Amino acid sequence: MSLGKMRDDFVAGKISKSDYIEKMYHDYHSYLFDYAKYIHQTDIDKIEISSEGVIVHTKTLGIRMLCLEHDFRLAPIEILNFLKYEPDETSMMLRIMPEAALIFDVGANAGWYSILFAKNDPRSKVYAFEPIPRTFDLLQHNIALNHLDNIESFRYGLSDKEGELVFYYHPEGSGNASLVNVSNRHDITKVSSCVKTVDSVRRSLGVAIDFIKCDVEGAELFVYEGAAETIAKDNPVIFSEMLRKWASKFGYHPNKIIEYLSGFGYVCCVVDRGKLKMFREMDEFTEETNYFFLHEVKHKDKLNELLI
Fold first, then answer.
1. Rounded to whole angstroms, how far apart are CA atoms 203 and 51?
2. Confidence (pLDDT) at 210
3. Helices 112-120 & 87-96, crossing angle to 10 degrees?
């Protein structure tokens, strides 16, 4: 029974006042105190409940994010589940990120990383790309919640070509939006959205890119193929998700990304005990899912500082 239904039953005389008070507390209100005890061990400072919805405030940089009902893979919910959100990767990103960086957040989702980057260094400029309309609206809402003017958001995706493509996603996991039905669900939601290339956007904006964060559920290779000019000219640091199960849906192995970027002078690394460790090749036993690519000449000092 929902909170509202129990209230309706009381008003309709279907439950006594004493039973109503007791059941409302034990079934619902007591969880407020459970959360108050629980969040001290997490990166969450407070949870705000209002007519606007549920807004989570983090201890890290005081990030504020609205949670969507039924979407249980958003960063604030992940923090509730796992205490922090990708803490090792986040810490390394902030160590590698140059000052006043120009950043492309490809697959920005609800904006966790865009907001993190923008708040960590107000001199930075973040361009956030999110093709799913519902998620894009949440991204813009979260940017506004944090009063940030150094993030510019775009409601389209990035790939190796330009045009209209179909994206697949399910509302309870908006972070799994992809150009193929990676979850193999029959109740998947489909939406058509525009895609462009990193190179074309970079030229139109007239910028040089320092850092690319890319998480597009298996289509990462195509983003980099559409960024060949940018990678060759700017040598940005690249932070990329790479999963065998998602890449296979697109007909390639993640090692193809390592091979492709090595052709531009990049080395692949993973985070290990607060440092970077060289990563050569993914096999069936590989557990890491997030990878850093640094240019061996441009980022030589960072590699010397951070490599194990």
1. 42
2. 98
3. 40
Residue 235 near residue 273 (C-beta atoms within 8 A):
no
The pLDDT score that the predictor gives to residue 294 is 98
Torsions phi, psi of 148, nearest 5?
Answer: -105, 135
pLDDT-flagged residues of the chain (< 50): none
Query: Whole-angstrom distance between the N-terminal and C-terminal Cα of the chain?
Result: 55
Whole-angstrom distance, CA of residue 291 vs CA of residue 258: 10
Residue 240 is classified by DSSP as E
What local confidence, expressed as pLDDT, does residue 185 receive? Answer: 74
Domains and CATH numbers, the chain: 3-82 (no CATH), 87-306 (3.40.50.150)
Nearest to 290 by CA among 302, 282, 300, 298: 282
DSSP class of residue 98? P
pLDDT digits (tens, 9 = 90+) for 20-69: 999 999 999 999 999 999 999 999 999 999 988 999 999 999 999 999 98
Instruction: Residue 286: name the closest of 263, 260, 254 by CA.
Output: 254
The residues, ordered by sequence, that sit 6+ positions from 5 with a Cβ below 8 Å of its Cβ are none
What's the pLDDT at 171? 65
Name the DSSP letter for residue 75: H
Cα gap 127→135, rounded to integer Å: 16
Under DSSP, the state recorded for 178 is B
Residue listed under structure tokens 């061996």: 296
The residue written with tokens 């890491």 in the block is: 288
CA 4 to chain centre: 33
The pLDDT assigned to 186 comes to: 75
Which residues on neighbouring strands pair with residue 192, listed in sequence order?
A: 166
Q: What is the largest CA-CA distance in the chain?
A: 75
